[in-house]
Specification:
By secondary structure, the protein is of the alpha/beta class. It is built from eleven helices and twelve strands. The protein has two domains: 5-120 and 128-135 and 163-227, Spore Coat Polysaccharide Biosynthesis Protein SpsA, Chain A (Alpha-Beta Complex); 231-295. The strands form two sheets. Strands 1, 2, 3, 4, 5, 6, 7, 9, 11 and 12 form a ten-stranded mixed sheet that branches. Strand 1 (5-11), helix 1 (16-28) and strand 2 form a beta-alpha-beta unit. This is Glycosyltransferase family 2 protein.
Length: 305
């Protein structure tokens, strides 16, 4: 008999995060499930240890760092097509007890839900705005260029839907750090667009699911904790430009044609400038942390959204 549920995560030297992910996953659902680890070239031994020590874990090596979306596609391909629901989640997620069963219950309440996402908290308890509108060219540009320096600007506020009450509802897209997906919906839109190396692949997926007639459902009765940004924090010179390139790709794909070329050019230039500023700020923060003896055991993180 095929299980109803499978869980896929992507690792890149995730270390102890992966152990916490798997330990807390055991309390998140009462359903039997298989876990697939799509590894993008870890050198810490954590994925191999997880497969060796846990009967329900399968390790798949992608052959290199092919990005988040591409690796997720590779992991999902290992799951039996008869499995109705596939969870995709970052390895630095800690599951609250029953959180995955809450998502499954909501999926049965919303038969047209292609994706469902929980309420996400950061380690300090802050609620992360994980349920958002799909950005258009104007709102997306306003948020991308001003979000880091003017956090209350109207474009960022509208994009993040921060004024909306935390109730179960359809939204434009949900954070890819933790999603419950109907397998037939994911397959119907050909999964993630692997052109996105990292960042914005979840925005693109939610938008394409919506255009294909599926719903993206925010389920705030399901809670997880996400230590976001540990990979970006280790290498801001690579990860932050990737974020800005993905933001450009998303808008460029949706605003084609020669008459919009000046808009695309302006967007590319603005995002390139913002990327340089963000990298410099992240590098200063890391250098400062390295210089402080009490902080030597902490990883820097970068807020790029």
């Amino acid at each position: 008999m095929t299980d109803q549920l499978a869980v896929v995560t992507v690792t890149y030297s995730s270390g102890d995060y992966l152990t916490t992910f798997l330990d807390t996953l055991a309390t998140a659902t009462t359903h039997s499930h298989r876990v697939v680890i799509a590894d993008n070239g870890s050198d810490d031994g954590a994925p191999e240890r997880a497969e060796r020590e846990r009967d329900n874990v399968t390790l798949v090596r992608t052959g290199g760092n092919i990005g988040y979306g591409g690796a997720m596609n590779r992991g999902v391909a290992e799951v039996d097509p008869g499995v109705e629901f596939v969870v995709i989640a970052n390895p630095d997620v800690a599951w609250e007890p029953g959180s995955l069963d809450e998502l499954l219950d909501a999926a049965h309440r919303w038969p047209r839900a292609g994706s469902l996402g929980p309420l996400i908290r950061e380690p300090d308890g802050t609620v992360y705005p994980s349920a958002r509108r799909v950005p258009d060219l104007i709102s997306g540009t306003g948020h991308a260029l001003l979000g880091a320096v003017w956090k209350s600007n109207p474009w960022t506020t509208a994009y993040r839907e921060e004024s909306s009450a935390p109730v179960e509802r359809p939204v434009g897209w949900l954070s890819g750090s933790c999603l419950l997906l109907r397998r037939n919906a994911f397959d119907a839109v050909d999964g993630f667009d692997s052109r996105y190396f990292m960042y914005m692949e979840d925005v693109d997926l939610g938008d394409r699911l919506g255009k294909a007639g599926w719903l993206n459902i925010f389920v705030p009765t399901s809670h997880i904790v996400h230590t976001k940004g540990h990979a970006a924090g280790r290498n801001p010179e690579k990860m932050l430009p990737a974020h800005h390139e993905s933001a450009y790709r998303f808008q460029a794909d949706r605003n084609p044609g020669p008459w919009r070329a000046p808009l695309r050019l302006a967007l590319r230039a603005g995002l390139a400038a913002r990327s340089k500023v963000a990298v410099a700020a992240a590098r200063r923060a890391l250098d400062k942390a390295d210089a402080a003896p009490a902080n030597h055991d902490q990883e820097g993180t970068s807020n790029v959204d």
